[in-house]
Amino acid sequence: MRIIFMGTPDFAVPSLQALIGAGHEVVLVVTQPDRPKGRKKTMTPPPVKEAALLHGLPVEQPERLRSSDTVSSIAALNPDLIITAAYGQILPKAVLEVPRLGCVNVHGSLLPRYRGGAPIQRSIMNGEQVTGVTIMYMAEGLDTGDMISRVELPISDEDTSGTMFEKLSAAGAELLMATLPSIEDGTVQAAVQNEADATYAPNLTREDERINWSGSARSIFNQVRGLSPMAGAFTLWNGETFKLWACQIIEAKKDGADVQPGTVIDASSEGILVGTGDGLLLLTTVQPAGKRAMPAAEFLKGAKLAAGSQFGGGQS
């Protein structure tokens, strides 16, 4: 088939590579513009662009697809199918109507749950134990189109957004390849989403990353996992940003001791033991302001962090 592929992050790369490997004619790759990255703000191409150029594929990077010349380019190429995977923009009606076989999306959740731009992170942050990938037809709404196929994957306590992105991107590519034949030959049977079951996973904000120590040990543990290794969860220490990259639940429930949330109970080679609104957390990988991420034990070698110190306020 003549296919236009639209995607941006690492999640989308396995699907693009699978299409190329299967011999489909990818006539255009559309991705987001290069963005500044790192402390030096170096302009960096998205992973999908890098993969496309590696295979000699043409690439377009409109800032806003709806108002760009890319819409005309897509129509002129007369594709059989448009496939998207974490592209990052909603396709306008003018694009949805171009391919004779429609537009399909590789979405990282079990629709209709977790529609939106951050389904993997929010699934973990909300403590879900199962997630998956849904192949769906695209419609004008946000992830509202009819569902074609899906696969489920478990989420363990050891998983982070990073590990689930890898698992789901591989599962999505495999599911896409298994689904394409029925789309091509017209035997596909799609199911309408049940709107009553719909939930949303909007893009993450800075406030989503801030730790509320009054929450439970389990909720903070899930928050840290869900934000790793991308943005990272953060609190304040000495009035500066202090990121948490890994932690362990030591006690899921209060044992009767009245510990102020965010209070350091102990600091040792094992990590930093902190009270929460319900239970205790051991911080094992941290990142103080201006420094790299490091084991908590290494941080403690040069930091004065005694029992009774407080996270989340202006002073330690």
TrEMBL record:
Q: Where does (6S)-5,6,7,8-tetrahydrofolate bind?
A: S109, L110, L111, P112
Q: Boundaries of each Formyl transferase C-terminal domain copy?
A: 204-303
Q: Locate the Formyl transferase N-terminal domain: which residues?
A: 1-179
Q: Which PROSITE patterns match?
A: GART
Carries keyword Electron transport? no
- Identify the SUPFAM superfamilies for this entry: FMT C-terminal domain-like (SSF50486), Formyltransferase (SSF53328)
Keywords attached to this Swiss-Prot or TrEMBL record, sorted alphabetically, are:
Protein biosynthesis, Transferase
Q: What is its EC number?
A: 2.1.2.9
GO molecular function, a single term: methionyl-tRNA formyltransferase activity
- Superkingdom of source: Bacteria
Name the catalysed reactions. L-methionyl-tRNA(fMet) + (6R)-10-formyltetrahydrofolate = N-formyl-L-methionyl-tRNA(fMet) + (6S)-5,6,7,8-tetrahydrofolate + H(+)
State the protein's purpose.
Attaches a formyl group to the free amino group of methionyl-tRNA(fMet). The formyl group appears to play a dual role in the initiator identity of N-formylmethionyl-tRNA by promoting its recognition by IF2 and preventing the misappropriation of this tRNA by the elongation apparatus.
Q: Which family does it belong to?
A: Belongs to the Fmt family.
Protein name, as recorded? Methionyl-tRNA formyltransferase
Q: Which organism is it from?
A: Paenibacillus plantiphilus
Taxonomic lineage: Bacteria, Bacillati, Bacillota, Bacilli, Bacillales
